[in-house]
Amino acid sequence: MIVITNPSPIKNETDIVHSLFEEGLALLHIRKPDFSEAETVQFIHQIKPEYRNKLVLHNHHDLAEDLGIGSLHFSEKERKHSHEVPAKFLNLYRNKNGSKSTSTHTIEDFNSLENDFDYAFLSPVFKSISKEEYHPKTNLFEALKSRTNHKTKVIALGGMDAENIQKTLKNGFDDIALLGTIWKNENPVKQFKLCQQIVQLHFQ
Q1: Distance from C-alpha of 154 to C-alpha of 88, rounded to nearest angstrom
Q2: Which tens digits make up the pLDDT trace of 25-45?
Q3: Radius of gyration in angstroms for the set of CA atoms belonging to the chain, rounded to a whole number
Q4: Which residues lie below 8 Å from residue 186, measured CB to CB, with a gap of 6+?
Q5: CB–CB of 117/152 below 8 Å?
Q6: 154-164, pLDDT tens digit by residue?
Q7: Domains of the chain
Q8: 161 touches 125 (CB < 8 A)
């Protein structure tokens, strides 16, 4: 199970992040699109060093090596305009025993991914919790029946919460990513634990 940071700062965010890791969070995607390089560095330095190998960097990839982050995420735009992504960043994750992920919004795009992406978000599965007016244009459960790419894990994103996790995993997604259901909740850690229990029960 993956958690993506809220795009804008959250009160006590670092404390919440530490609690999520203590509860067993496997990966935290650092997605702060409006952060400068300096703000990104400051944010990451607030996270305990022992969790550095569980961080995935969305922006300012050139900071990854200095920060000791081996897992990188590339947006759809970056992937489709590969000249915007220097080769050294594409290969960096291999040197750090990290992962490389990307974002997709159609099954056709997911199926066409190169084999070196470990996993990809496919979204939105449901109406987004964090983005108003962001909702599915197609039924991604139906679309998944046309999946031909089985080397890349497909991760459900968009509107994921405790009510629909079981349905999502039963219908072909390999895992889920949480954003709004965590950061819009009054008790993010409690909500994470609830979602985590549902995922664990599915894979038992």
Answers
A1: 25
A2: 999 999 999 999 999 999 999
A3: 16
A4: none
A5: yes
A6: 999 999 999 99
A7: 2-203 (3.20.20.70)
A8: no
